[in-house]
Amino acid sequence: MKNAPLTDTVFVLVHGAWHSSGQWAATQRTLAGLGAASVAVDLPGHGFDARLPSGYLLPGQPGLLTEKSRLASLTMDDCAEAVLGVLRRVRHHHTVVLVAHSAGGGPASLAAERAPELVDRIVYLSAFVPGGRSRFRDYLGSPENATALGQNLILGDPEALGAIRINPLSPDPAYLHELRETHYHDTPQDRFDRWRSALSPDLPLAIPTAPVALTPARWGRIPRTFLRCAEDRALTPAAQDLMITEADRAFPESPFTVRTLPGSHSPFAARPDELAAALAT
């Protein structure tokens, strides 16, 4: 792949929890300037078609703590199929690079496992790698991730709601401060306010809890890169390193190429040009 011209490359970009294809726009502009095509995926339950809790946009947000999510029935299979649909449409490019951020690592990994012939390289941007442990929550709850922020952002009972629910439109300054410190601490305040308004409140519960099984003959044969976020407060560098180590131990034939980016969990917001440059190389 490293000898293929960038003009023959397409990046398929998979967002993380509560985000959407829109998070990649600035990075895509820079990739286009470098000669690369890119397509950003909206996972089911995210983006402009996301089904919101009925009171989310109303004064006082009635029922936000208790209303069952309209996304509760979504499965990991549904999310992987959304990625596969895009991969099938772009396979005519010489080189296809699948890029996943955060919780998007689960659906992206399952898609690559099911159709490794559609992916030439997979890149994990501070993303869940199910190589050692099959569920994202097993890493989120690990001792290595004990210092991560964000637990106070979760509303209600996720099992009862069928989703991990947050409130990006909260009027509480303390809540918004934790949201920024968790995901966007190096993004200017005015830009953070715009970013948070575009987030969806519900992450389908299946994404962090459903197991993703990988095999050496399929996922394991795809060259892979991990882009670490050095000051990540949502998924700590120690937890990122744990996933890399355990995946390389389970799949030693094709270990990760590892690079480190400065800053937070959200480089697409804070430094999209640097992120695009890292992907291009």
UniProtKB/TrEMBL annotation:
Its EC number is 3.1.1.88. GO terms for molecular function: trans-permethrin hydrolase activity. It holds the Pfam family Abhydrolase_6. It comes from the Bacteria. It is an enzyme of class 3 (hydrolase). Residues 11-278 form the AB hydrolase-1 domain. InterPro entries: AB_hydrolase_1, AB_hydrolase_fold, Sec-Metab_Biosynth_Hydrolase. This is Pyrethroid hydrolase.
